[in-house]
Amino acid sequence: MLINKIFKKIEKQINKNIILLYIKGTPELPVCGFSNKALQIMYKCTKNFSYINVLEDNEIRKALPKFGNWPTFPQLWINKKLIGGCDIITEMYNCNELQILIKKTLKNHKINN
Questions:
Q1: List of residues 6+ apart from 72 with CB closer than 8 A
Q2: How does pLDDT run across 6-37, given as a tens digit for each residue?
Q3: What is the largest CA-CA distance in the chain?
């Protein structure tokens, strides 16, 4: 089944990237305000994250909400776990949880922030 192939592709992306942000657009040219806000917060926390532009892969864009059981973009994944979208990223950042999680994650993977 095609969905299994796409899910395997998503799984591979998440497994390969310790901190992964699925966004609409690119860091240089975000296409939606929520993706832009998430990017700005991430850059305040670290430059050590990967991103995937879901607008470049229609299959990923359609399948990722089912895969993570999260309907919208952006989606932040850390250590193979879905953290959430823009609202959760913002809330976690505002109470310093996101900074602590990212710092701990990078330290555990021996990556300098």
A1: 34, 65, 85, 86
A2: 999 999 999 999 999 999 999 999 999 999 99
A3: 42
Element spanning 51, H or E: strand 50-53
Contacts of 18 by beta carbon, 8 Å cutoff, 6+ apart: 48, 78, 79, 105, 106, 109, 111
Q: What is the pLDDT of residues 46-65, one digit of tens each?
A: 999 999 999 999 999 999 99
Q: Is 71 exposed, middle or buried (0-12, 13-18, 19+ CB in 10 A)?
A: exposed
Task: Name the nearest CA neighbour of 6 among 53, 83, 96, 67.
Answer: 67
Instruction: Return d(Cα 24, Cα 64) in angstroms, integer.
Output: 13
In this prediction the pTM is: 0.95
Residue 20, phi-psi category: left (phi > 0), alpha (psi -120 to 50), beta (remainder): beta
